[in-house]
Amino acid sequence: MTTDTLVSPQAATIAQGLRILAQMAPPAVADLSLFTGKLGHVLLYAYAYKHSGADAHWQRLTETLDDVLAQLQPSSSARLLTQPGLLPNLAMVLQVLRTDDIADIELGEETLTQFDEVVGKQALAYIRGRNIDFLYGATGALHYLGTRAAGRPVVEATLRDLLAALLETRVEDERGIRFFNAHINHLNGNTDINLGLAHGHCGLLLVLLQLHEAGLLQDEIAPLAGRMVDYLLSLELPPEPEKGRVSFFPARHEDGRPLHDPLNRQAYNNRMGWCYGDLNVVQVLHQAARMLGRPELDALACRVGAHTCTRRAEFDSGIDSAHLCHGSASLALYYRQLYAAQPLPCYREAHAYWKQETLDRLPAAYEQGDEAFQASGLLMGLPGLLLWLITEELGEPVAWPQLFLL
Fold first, then answer.
1. What value does the mean pLDDT take over residues 182-193?
2. Please, what's the b/e burial string for 33-59 (b: 16 or more CB within 10 A of its CB; e: otherwise)?
3. How many Å apart are CA 330 and CA 334, to the nearest integer?
4. How far is residue 388's CA from residue 392's CA, in Å, rounded to a whole number?
5. For residue 138, how far is the Cα from the chain centroid?
6. From CA 140, how far away is CA 161, in angstroms rounded?
7. What are 294-318's pLDDT values in tens digits?
8. What whole-number distance in Å separates Cα of residue 304 and Cα of residue 315?
9. What's the chain's average pLDDT?
10. 171 φ, ψ (degrees, to nearest 5)
11. Which residue, 25, 37, 314, 365, is most buried by CB atoms nearer than 10 A?
12. Confidence (pTM)
């Protein structure tokens, strides 16, 4: 097929967005990453091609991927290997494209074995530095290694060593186990325990539960994950809508202060999104209930999840934009994935609401162009919004949300 055959209004909106993106500044030359750089564009154009079959999208996919691979050649790759998540995300993007029958591009087992070694060393350094970030630290590396461990004893041994190193950095008391994220603590100038998926507790816990589900290190992970869930539960507080507080769980917590300290209570903010908020906890509790055999967690997840579905006003949701990190598209994607795993009617209704909310925001965002988006990457930019929109138009399960732990 050499031309787009887009006919539906939503497909026309996709085509318009792709034209606008082509006129925007591309990612920085050296930014090969998934969430802010060129790998994100590889992912977008792969699904644009899956959707339309247009040769132009295939060309953009291959040209961008060739550029990424060229920069990873031995003569120029040393500085790039320090980009957090670059090697894991490159390998996992290619896994996703194979899973969804878009492209069968193999790096070769020898190359991937080298990736495993480099990523394992990076992860150990992150853990020793107390950096458990999903986007920029150890959690993302653990996520990748978990996809490589089946049938590879060396990778499983690496995961075992990394888990042992992780346990050495734990903070544990009667409330449970948690970990500092030195990366986000440094950026924010604080000593909080971050609870989010992108930068903290929920992201690490989700990856550990995924490793457990894959049959990896189950004897070691089950008690650790259980105590990490206990810590989450210790932070649950009932919403106080009369005081403008509608969340059950905080975005962060300062362990040195009492639970009801005003500064801690202030962290129960109303923001929902992919990156942090009550939906992260709902996802964790649903998965932990299944993996750890604790049905009471599923009951709590359903209660909190149902409450999130009622949070539609901007004040109650914090939604003031459309992007994939903590905009309306992130909620549409989240509820879509939650409903697939746990088909509660309120999840289906919330998905439909936030999908329409995002579609309603698009005309103004398109008109503003660059001004409507903080970046040209997946998380905060137009590419992520278009990837979500293409997924909605495809109307079938796709693999790329795995890259977001969804």
1. 92
2. bbbbbbbbbbbbbbbbbbbbebebbbe
3. 6
4. 6
5. 14
6. 16
7. 999 999 999 999 999 999 999 999 9
8. 18
9. 93
10. -110, 125
11. 37
12. 0.94
